[in-house]
Amino acid sequence: MIVAMPVLFRDLVSSVARLTGLHGEEARAVTEVAVIALARSVPEPGRGRLLAVLPGDMAAFLPLARPPSDRTDEDVVRELARLGRRAPAQARAEAMAVYASLCEHDPGLAGELDLPGGLAALFTRPRPAPAR
Q1: pLDDT for 102-118, tens place per residue?
Q2: How many other CB atoms sit within 10 Å of the CB of residue 84?
Q3: pTM reported for the whole predicted model
């Protein structure tokens, strides 16, 4: 297994902004919430693999005290919609952008996470955001 170097947080947020059309703080917040939801859903050793590709400062502060739960993609989207105060369709598109950005940096990542309950559906590349 080849592990990519951790992605820089600003590069991850920039990629998410490009894919979603979000800017600044909004893109940063979407990125953080989607990564936290993913990390809470992935069991070991996939969780460790995910943490290895995240920026060190982000990985160190993720609230992961509880064990991973066996959640579906719909469970994750509901959590993201609630946390981000967004419609589920928007939360799904934003999560897909975050996960696509992670996989852009580390193309083998999704295949090594052992994604539970249909979460792999969130790892398909979203359509580019329309120009604002």
Answers
A1: 888 888 888 888 776 67
A2: 18
A3: 0.80
